[in-house]
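Hello forum,

I keep getting stuck at the same step: I have a sequence, I want structure tokens, and every attempt I make locally crashes halfway through. Rather than fight my setup again tonight, could one of you with a working pipeline run this one for me? It's a single chain of 97 residues.
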Amino acid sequence: MWSGPLASGGRVRLSGVTVTPDGEFVPYEWETDDSRQDPSRHDATFMVADGPAQLAWVRSAALRTFGPPQRTYRHDGYTIMVWDANLLSRLGYPGLV
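Reply #2:
Ran it on my machine without issues. Output:
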């Protein structure tokens, strides 16, 4: 998955995650600043899946890791799942899988 700024004036940043063999999300550590995954410093309430090819496995891993989203939006080929909680506190331990 991709990590970088959105067209948001630097207010929103996306960080990559990867899936463990158990099917749960953990932070993806390749060239990533670990402090961005710290739930005491940052708040992440949404997840973005790129296109229908990714949606099935992203949704499955999201449900296992975070539970069902409160809202789901589709825009321009992307699916955005939104929760009413900080997802960073629910991520497993970081690691290259």
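The beta strands are 4-5, 13-14, 17-19, 25-27, 46-50, 71-75, 78-82. If your local run keeps crashing, start a new thread with the error log.
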